[in-house]
Design brief:
Plays a role in the modulation of physical activity and adiposity. By secondary structure, this protein is an alpha/beta fold. Helix content is about 25%, strand content about 20%. The two termini are about 25 Å apart.
Length: about 190
């Protein structure tokens, strides 16, 4: 019975994300991604979608670059914008609105943005990313990541001298047995 229920849940999630792109994920729902490289952070991470702006993931990326923005807050022109093109940007919260950051990444050709909390010790509190008062829009998906997760990803890249991580997004965690799920050891699930 447990396997049948898991299959039904997976089918429902797949239908919501893949077949109903206008709906996508709703607020308080999670999207998962896995870092494939570097190996020391080869974990499955949890993110939450923006509440009322941005696009949805209607494509699964098996291997795409997660590129830390330079400057990290991505409130204006990027020094590494050429590396953001057709990839996913890792941005840090602060300096401007979530929507402004998303638009900067979109203008640089990014496929999505993951905005990590700037409170590096935050390992459990998700921020609700909302539209600002500008009446602007964004078409690419925008996700919120816990501060500790964003910090650990950036720290690993710096330690290895790498310009980006390789990730798979979104990941269907309902198909992974709990004992095989590689979760960050610093985060409670």
């Amino acid at each position: 019975a447990g396997r049948g229920a898991a299959m039904l849940l997976w089918l429902w999630l797949w239908l919501c994300v893949c077949c109903c792109p206008g709906r996508g994920l709703r607020i308080h729902e999670y999207l998962y991604f896995q870092v494939l490289s570097p190996g020391d952070i080869r974990y499955i991470f949890t993110a939450t979608p923006a509440k009322d702006f941005g696009g949805v993931f209607n494509t699964r990326y098996d291997q795409i670059h997660l590129v830390p923005a330079d400057p990290p807050e991505a409130c204006g022109e990027l020094n590494n914008g050429v590396f953001i093109q057709d990839q996913i940007a890792l941005v840090e919260r602060g300096g401007c609105s979530f929507l402004s950051k998303t638009r900067v990444i979109q203008e640089h050709g990014g496929r999505a943005v993951i905005i990590a909390d700037n409170a590096y010790d935050n390992d459990s509190f998700y921020i609700e990313m909302i539209q600002d008062s500008s009446r602007r829009t964004a078409d690419i998906p925008a996700l919120f990541l816990l501060g500790r997760d964003g910090y650990m990803i950036r720290r690993s890249l710096e330690q290895h001298g790498l310009p980006w991580a390789v990730i798979s997004i979104p990941v269907n965690v309902t198909s992974i047995p709990t004992y095989e799920m590689m979760q960050p050891p610093w985060t409670f699930w």
